[in-house]
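To the team - guanosine-5'-diphosphate complex, inputs and output below.
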Amino acid sequence: MRLQFPSGVAGAGSRTRRPDPGPVGQPRGFLEKKMAILRLRHAVRTLFEVPAALRRLSRACSTFHAFTDVLRLPKRQMTKLVFPLQELERQLTPDSRLDLHVKIFDPSLEDISKAEAVFTATSRNRISYLSSAVRLDHAPDLPSPEVCFIGRSNVGKSSLIKALFSLAPEVEVRVSKKPGHTKKMNFFKVGKYFTLVDMPGYGYRAPEDFVDMVETYLKERRNLMRTFLLVDSVVGIQKTDSIAIEMCEEFALPYVMVLTKIDKSSKGHLLKQVLQIQKFVDKETQGCFPQLFPVSSVTYSGIHLLRCFIANITGNLKTDGL
Ligand code: GDP
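Output:
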């Protein structure tokens, strides 16, 4: 890696400067060198400050995998972490609050706590990667309910699945991003509760057989209970997302829109995007669940609620909220 020094640091034009006499008793070259060293130290310190701050944030957030830790937070902070949509709604004027559907799925904290057992690996609840398939007829034939995650490459799908499985740290979420690398559907068994399928990321250059694979799976998988369609909250619905939305609509699938990376935007930008997507869901879709699920795999915001929703729609948890 090449270090970029601020201008004035040794090597950035100092050799062309005419030497002027330094303070009495200090040879000019000595002072220049000393200053350069100080500037260099400052540059290096600045270079490492940002990653260190990110590491601190990630260490702080890593304690929020488990809901028991979340429950210890002050109320306002906990609400923000568990119900990010409610936090966004607070910024709206009373009359425009109806624009967001924040409480269609509104489980109690107790329900969210219970859902955690479904996602926690124990000797009686084995959570593991099962197999991969490039064609539907290679997919495991399991009787348990299934949910699948789809989204364009880089939307944050692997990170989200890792966050959902953070209470089963031995689960390996496989990523095959190299261009030309075979893209597969990856199946994860969550004990006796359900199967989670990580579908290959799509993009403009998705080959035909890939589209066939996704289409065939979505159309024909009998035990598929819900499709989770991921949209990057920073950029909103893109052209490729629309293709996936159209596919879900055409096959009359029940699907849910999950908005990823909500920690990346300012509150104002996020609210704008969320309202735009909500409007789209209300006006242009039939099969999409009306409530959006904003999440961050970095801060764990929205992750516990999403776990609870999955436990609910796979028939593993009855909640008061739905
Ligand atoms: P995938 O291609 O959809 O599986 O996307 P990844 O999970 O690999 O994420 C793509 C990039 O987005 C990576 O650099 C991740 O670190 C980053 N990313 C994913 N989720 C989040 C998130 O919630 N917040 C932030 N800040 N970055 C994220």
